[in-house]
Each structure stands twice: as structure tokens, then as C-alpha cells.
Amino acid sequence: MFSQIRKVDIEIHNYCNRACKWCPNYKFKREKYEELPEKAYLKLLEELRDNKFGKWRTSKDSPVLTFTRYNEPLTRPALLIKRVEQAREILPIGIRFEVNTNGDYLTKDLASRLDLDALNIMDYDCRGLEYWKRFLEKIGVMITNISTGGDIITGISSKIKKVCCKINWSENCKIENRGGTVDTNIECSVDGEKRNMELIRNGERRKLPCVEPMYMITVESNGNVMPCYNMRSDIPLHKEFVLGNIKADSLVAIYSSENTEKIRKRIVSNDWANFPLQCQYCNRIRPGYYPNVYYCKSWSNEDKFKQTWIYAK
């Protein structure tokens, strides 16, 4: 069932200490703190294991499980450490465990206790190369490489196999519109409250199908399962894309349901007239997680789509 899954995002809690303009948290604030219950989390891991998550690997790439979504995982360090340990005990060897962070809560002690394959730090405040070199060295990260342009620092710590710091992230990163909720022209998004319920359409209209719902599982702290990283169940524009809830149903039942298949086929299709409005201006293309599947040059070969598992039913 899940052998084709390349990435699983699990939001172990929903708190973030920031409200960045390029994130839905800027306009859609979460008023109540919520954690994914341990019982539901462990059941989720067991379902992934029992249904072959992690089986499909290549010589260069393995499936990924992240503990990140629209939250800051490091704000609850003890919870994060425990959840990583539980995932390592239950899931097969070879799955990569990653965390994305703004770095605000990263300390030397935490860096020495987090058993991760990758910790990705985003320099949202554009503090620059020299600041992050000093900071990483201070918390015990040995720097192994600095990119030619000086925009990425990589290193290792005692337990983290790869620390990757993306310098001046908010200047260099291509902003995504998060299912029509974020204005990619950041300077124009100051009227956030006025646009709370409005579908934001900017940039070029998407002309490529999306394979995220076929190769990704996204679970929120409330237990809701969403078809992709950009969707959030508490945003009115995205409510129709809630696939189910792992506290009420099994992940297998949710992922194989008629509703899930219907949404998946819609998003993967070339039927641009009926393409979901929320996805029409999404610029998400992530070839890194989908080797031999996601061809950036062209998705015009319809036979490639028909070979995928969703069309095999």
C-alpha cells in the first residue's frame, strides 16, 4: 500500500513562535495548542511499517519522514526527541528522519541529543553567512562545506548526520502560494486580514500536473490527513481536501478511499479546465523526493501517468 510513498510529514504539535508573511500562519493563526496524541502517532507508524513504507529505495535516495509542517518542532524538544526515538524503533532501517527549523530554539544540548539524518535551518532573518558559521560552531556543528555562492552551509554534529543552513532564506527562496493563501508578492500582502477568505491568484498559472498526492502523506497535529504539504485543514479554502482523520480511521482506509482517489486523480490530471482552484497557481515542483518519477522537463507523456499506481486500479 505505501511502498511507493517517498515522503511523510507528521506534525507532532501545531505551535510556531513566528508568523512569517510567506506562511499561512500569518493570516490563519492557530489559537489553540494541539499535539498529535501518542496513541494515534504510534498507530500511524505501525501502519506505515506494516504496509511497506520504506521499501522503495534507490542508490541515491531513501524515503523521508519529517516532523515538520506549519509548526516549529524545536519548541517542544523533549516531545520531538521522544517521537524520533519511537519512529526509529518502529520503522524500517533506511528511512531518513528530517526536521526543518527556524533555528530559534536550537542549542548545543539539543543538537547533541537529536538523532536525525538531516536538520534544515532556514535563515528567515537574513543574518548572513558569518553569523551562521559562528552559531553552528558554537553549538558543536563541524562545518564540512560552504556553497560557492555562500548561500548554503552544511555540516555534521555528534548525532545529526547532516546540518544544512540556508543563508538569507527569505531573499533567495522562491515563495509558494500555499494553496492560494499566500501572496507571492510579499510586499503586497500587508492587507492580510482583508484577504483572509480570498483565493490569491498570482504568478503563472500551473500547467504541470502534481504528483505530490500520489507519493506523499501529510498528517496534521489534529489527526487530519491532507493530500499535500500546502493544504491545511483549518483554512476554509482547504476544507474540501481533508481526506480523513487517523484518530477515527486507519491510514489505509483513508488513503484508499473513493474520496482520496477522486482528489488524487483531479490533481494529477491534465484537465486544466477543472483543475482545483486552490492548486491553479501552485509552483511546487520537488524532483528530489521522486527519482525516476518526477521529470521537470516535461509531464506531457500521458503514458507515464498511466503507469503510476493510481491509474492501475
In words, what does this structure look like?
- The protein is of the alpha/beta class and 313 residues long.
- It has helices at 38-50, 77-90, 108-111, 129-138, 169-172, 212-215, 251-255, 258-268, 302-306, and strands spanning 7-10, 64-66, 96-101, 118-122, 142-146, 152-156, 163-166, 216-219, 224-226, 244-245.
- Helix content is 22%, strand content 13%.
- Strands 5-6-7-4-3-2-1-8-9-10 form a ten-stranded mixed beta sheet.
- α1 runs parallel beside α2.
- The two termini are 12 Å apart.
Brief descriptors of the model:
disordered C terminus, 10 strands, 13% strand
Q: How are the elements arranged and paired?
A:
Blueprint: E1 7-10, H1 38-50, E2 64-66, H2 77-90, E3 96-101, H3 108-111, E4 118-122, H4 129-138, E5 142-146, E6 152-156, E7 163-166, H5 169-172, H6 212-215, E8 216-219, E9 224-226, E10 244-245, H7 251-255, H8 258-268, H9 302-306
Parallel strand pairs: 1-2, 1-8, 2-3, 3-4, 4-7
Antiparallel strand pairs: 5-6, 6-7, 8-9, 9-10
Shape: globular
Query: If you compute it from the alpha carbons, what radius of gyration comes out, rounded to the nearest whole angstrom?
Result: 19 Å
Amino- and carboxy-terminal Cα gap:
12 Å
Unreliable spans are 188-197, 287-302, 305-313
- Hey, roughly how much beta strand do the residues contain? 5-15%
Order of helices and strands: EHEHEHEHEEEHHEEEHHH
- Mean pLDDT level: 86
The biggest sheet, with number of strands, parallel, antiparallel or mixed sense and barrel status, is: 10 strands, mixed
**Strands, count:** 10
Secondary-structure content class: alpha/beta
Helical content stands at 10-25%
Main-sheet strand order equals 5-6-7-4-3-2-1-8-9-10
**Number of DSSP helices?**
9
